[in-house]
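This part of the workshop introduces the protein records we will be handling. An example says more than a description, so a record of this kind follows.
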Amino acid sequence: MIEETVFSNKELIDIVKNKYEINVNKVHKLDRGSANLYSLNDDKYILKEFQSKYSKEEINKEIVIINHLKKDGLLVPKYIVTIDKEYCFIYKNKIIIMQKFIDGYTMEPNTGNLEQVIESACKLGKIVKSLKSLEIELPINDVSSWYSLDTLNESIQKHKDLLNKINENEYPNIYKDINEKIYMLEYTKNNYNFDEMKNLTFMNTHGDYSVLQFIYKNEKIKSIIDFVSACKMPIVWEIIRSYSYIDMKAKDGKIDIDNLVIYVKEFNKYVKLNKYDLKYMSYLYLIQILCSTFGYKQYISDNSKTELLNFARFRTKLSKYLFENAELISNILEKEIIK
C-alpha cells in the first residue's frame, strides 16, 4: 500500500537544494510501485521516498549491494550522493534517496517472449553469482516456516475466516477459489513430507526478483531495481517465481515446463543447483502461494482493488496447476538438469 507522502512540492524542491545542491524546476509524481516516486527536471533525476517500515540500515544495505553489483558489471541504478557524502537521508521519519533517471520502460507481467525469459534467467544467475562475494551478511529468510504444520493450519483458518465474510451468491468466483485453496492446503498438510527441504541451497539474492523490477530499453533489460528485500533464501523460489511472472505462456497460471527447463538451465550456467533444489522447487512455490490470502483479503475489504483480485486469482490458477503437476515438473527438471 502506498503511504501518503511527507512532501509538498516546495518542501521537495527545498530539501533537494539543501541536500544535493541541485536546483529543481519541475516535479512530477510517478504512479509506480509501493514507494512515493518523483521525477525531477524532466526525468533527469528520480527521488524515492520509502515506506515507513524501512530503516536507514536496510536502505544502506541496498546501497552496498548496488555498488557491489556495479563493480561486477551488473545493470543497476546509479544513486546520487548528498553533499554530506551519504546515499540516503531521513526526512520526517522517511528514508529518502535520489538516483539518475533510467531512460526506459517497464513491461507488464507475463508478456515476455522466449528471448526475454532467457535474459531474465541470465541476469538472475549473474546477480546470485556476484552476491556470493558480498562483504556484508544478508538476513536469512527461513522458509521452513512456510511449510510448517502451524503455518498450514493458520493459513487454512485464514481462508475459512475469509469465507465467513462473503456471500457465495455475491462472490461466486472468490468463494470457489478459496474453497479450492482450502482443499489443497488440507491435502498438503496431510500428505506431504518436507524433511528433505533442509537440503535446499540458500544463497544471497535480490529477494523480490521479477519482471516488475526491470527497466527495459529496446526490449532488453537496461536496469534491475529495488534490492531493498535482498536476503539469503532458497534460490529456487526466486527462480520459479520470476519465471512465472515473465513468460507470456504462463499468463493463465499454467507453467510451460519446456520454458521453465530453459530458464533453469540458463540460471544453472552461473550457479549450480543440487538435486533437492530441482525436486522441491515446484513444491516450495506451491506452498508459498497457497498459504497467502493476499489480494482476496484486500478486495473483500475494498471492491475497488480489482488489480489485487486479478493477481490473487492468477496465483490461485497457478497453485492449482502446481498442485496437479509439481511431481511432473520435479521429475523433468531432475532429468534435464542433472545429467
